[in-house]
Amino acid sequence: MTTPICDFVRRYEALRPIRLHMPGHKRGTDITEIPGADVLYAAQGIIRESEENAAALFHSRRTLYSAEGSSLCIRAMLYLAQMHAALQGRRARIAAGRNAHRVFLETAALLDPELEWIGESGSLLQCRVDPMALEDLFRSPGTAPTAVYLTTPDYLGNRTDLQPIAEICHRHGALLLADNAHGAYLRFLPGGEHPLTRGADLCCDSAHKTLPVLTGGAYLHFSEGCPPALAEMGERAMALFASTSPSYQILASLDAVNRLLAEDYPARILETADRVGKMKTALIRKGWRLVGTEPLKLTLAPKSYGWLSGDLAAVLRENSIYCEFFDEDYLVMMVSPENSAEELRTVSRLLLSLPRRSAITALPPAAAKPERVLTPHEALMQPFESVPAEKSLGRILASPSVSCPPAVPILVCGERIDEQAQELFRYYGITKCDVVK
Fold first, then answer.
1. 71 exposed, middle or buried (CB, 10 Å; 0-12, 13-18, 19+)?
2. Mean pLDDT, residues 42-46 taken together
3. How far apart are CA 194 and CA 153, in angstroms?
4. Over the stretch 10-41, which tens digit does the pLDDT of each residue have?
């Protein structure tokens, strides 16, 4: 497979040019839109060729590159959902799982679609959507969504079967949008678990999270069944929210990974998934409780083994093992083919060597079900003040910044802070919040 961006950069470097263009450091493969380099979001040359290579690999109608992660792609998806509704002569109404990334909420607050939260939250980071309940929502007068937005896999590695949800959406003329930031590699495993394969119309993948791509590299995919008009608006949607100075090094890394994915890298992904699967089996036999079904993510719920996640993370760090994330209840480790078999054996040996203790039975607080007072847009546009979380009872949240890592909001701006929300604030270490004046 061709790598036109990388080839261009190599040819340019070979000229040993006097660089009287950005960036200021004047070194390496970091360049700007000089002649021949093409222009992201108005691509007609080598960037367009490279994106077409990616589209062929992912079996999409069209794939666009992002140098600003899936965050940019999420913003573009919501704009395109607005345009889809406008083409139908309707106001956008988006039904979303409440474990959506804060970027979804921030963008919705700016674009101001109607929002409908769906699904059951077993915890802050999880959301289960019942297809039958979604069908009922479509059939209820005045509540039919123009788009459904789901996060799968979620941060813990739980996956939602999108196929029945896609069938419902398409039967009612709605889009299905998928935040697949953690699952770009799923396209290259057997079983067809990538959202595009399962019926999503628009999908974002963070290439940098699970593939050998520089941080910030991501994709916005348009499915073969996506309305062609939306695919034609894709670059405009991205450009509305993107920097006009994207990193060319990130673009080159997205270009370079195309060749890897066209050659032996899928086999390496499968081999690594098999290693992780065996590792999971050994841990379960030892008594560890695991969460999620994502093949390259290892999520422990260590309380049942008698360990607090923070204490377990500290033991890992003492052994030069750094996890992706931990909170009061979970510890997440993300694996890729760039992790050697010996590295995985080291992690496995350490976890299997830890003594089992008395189970810790303390449960996290139930997810909040607060009163909605203002729309997110109304709340975001109001004057606000920061107050201690313990003194926020009864106030209206003004900013979606109140969140537990990994950026899943405890409350949505415009909602009233109740005692349940305050309990969640305490549990997740939130000490301040912005409230409407």
1. buried
2. 96
3. 10
4. 999 999 999 999 999 988 889 988 999 999 99
- What is the identity of the amino acid at 268? R
Contact 72, 218 (CB under 8 A): yes
Q: What is the DSSP string of 221-240?
A: EE-TTS-HHHHHTHHHHHHH
Dist. CA 132–CA 122, nearest whole Å:
18
> How far apart, in whole angstroms, are the C-alpha atoms of residue 37 and residue 48?
11
Helix, strand or coil, per DSSP, at residue 261: helix
Which residues are paired to 387 by β-bridges?
Answer: 433
Q: Encode pLDDT of 48-107 as tens digits.
A: 999 999 999 999 999 999 999 999 999 999 999 999 999 999 999 999 999 999 999 999
Cα 100 from chain centroid?
A: 8
DSSP-derived letter for residue 370 is: P
- Tokens matching residue 357: 């203790």
Question: Please, is 317 exposed, middle or buried when counting C-beta atoms within 10 Å of its C-beta (0-12, 13-18, 19+)?
Answer: exposed
Instruction: Count the helices and strands in the chain (H runs, E runs).
Output: 16, 15
- Give the model's pLDDT for residue 198: 97
Beta-carbon contacts of 238 under 8 Å, excluding residues fewer than 6 positions away, are: 41, 64, 66, 72, 73, 76, 220
Burial class (CB in 10 A: 0-12, 13-18, 19+), 229: exposed
Residue 191 CB neighbour total at 10 angstroms: 8
Q: How far apart are CA 27 and CA 13, in angstroms?
A: 9
User: What is the pTM for the complete model shown?
Assistant: 0.96
For residues 175 and 148, the answer to whether their CB atoms sit within 8 Å is: yes
pLDDT exceeds 90 at position 124: no
